[in-house]
Amino acid sequence: MTNDAAGWLDSAAIDPAVHALRPDYRALLLTAEGLRPGPSDELSERLLADAEQAARERFGDRPVEEHPHLAAWREAFRAFGAKPQRTRPSAEALLRRAPAGLPRVDRLTDIYNAISVAHVIPLGGEDLDHYVGAARLVRAEGDETFETTAGGEPVVEHPSPGEVVWRDEAGVTCRRWNWRQCTRTRLTHATTRAMFVLDALGPMDDTALKAAGDQLMEALTDASPGVTLASRLVGAAA
User: Fold this and answer.
1) Alpha-carbon distance 15 to 136, whole Å?
2) Ranges for the B3/B4 tRNA-binding domain (predicted)?
3) Per-residue pLDDT tens for 145-160?
């Protein structure tokens, strides 16, 4: 359990091996304490509907993967051996679902999914109370544990050697940079303290990254009046 959100932000790090792979990578990390979790509601529904409409207007019938930011993410996935047509960057996976309707999961997940789609940026959230120690973005050795499910049953997987993963002291929290989160730290209806990761590559400049972070903070404040927020930019432009 991570008790000090400000200290947790200060301790987060990106390994030099990841910088070498993509020198243009930046992560905007945000912590939120005093959240009000629960099922999808009117506020999260409005955000998702607005994001769906924005995606329709932005892309029309054009392939979403041609967007410069998503194209850069596909290149980043290929650089560590992933096949983006099989394991897509999270923002691309969501945008592909937007025409038929984005998933409705719970109010906190819905909020960050809406911001991800609206700003064409990979964005994930984790429960800080289930995080163990510092967040580190590394290239995996291959023996790290990743807790997930298969066929509705809990299983433990291992990342491929060289795969880019977020991890803490207990194991991998997100595989393939932003592809899939583990079950241990996922947001639930009991989450009141969370961290969010906004992933940017070169085509998204710092102004656009900040705009996405600002909208996420605004939405979290609307959803949970009195929430305490903090953020830190980590990476090339930090």
Assistant:
1) 7
2) 71-225
3) 999 998 889 999 999 9
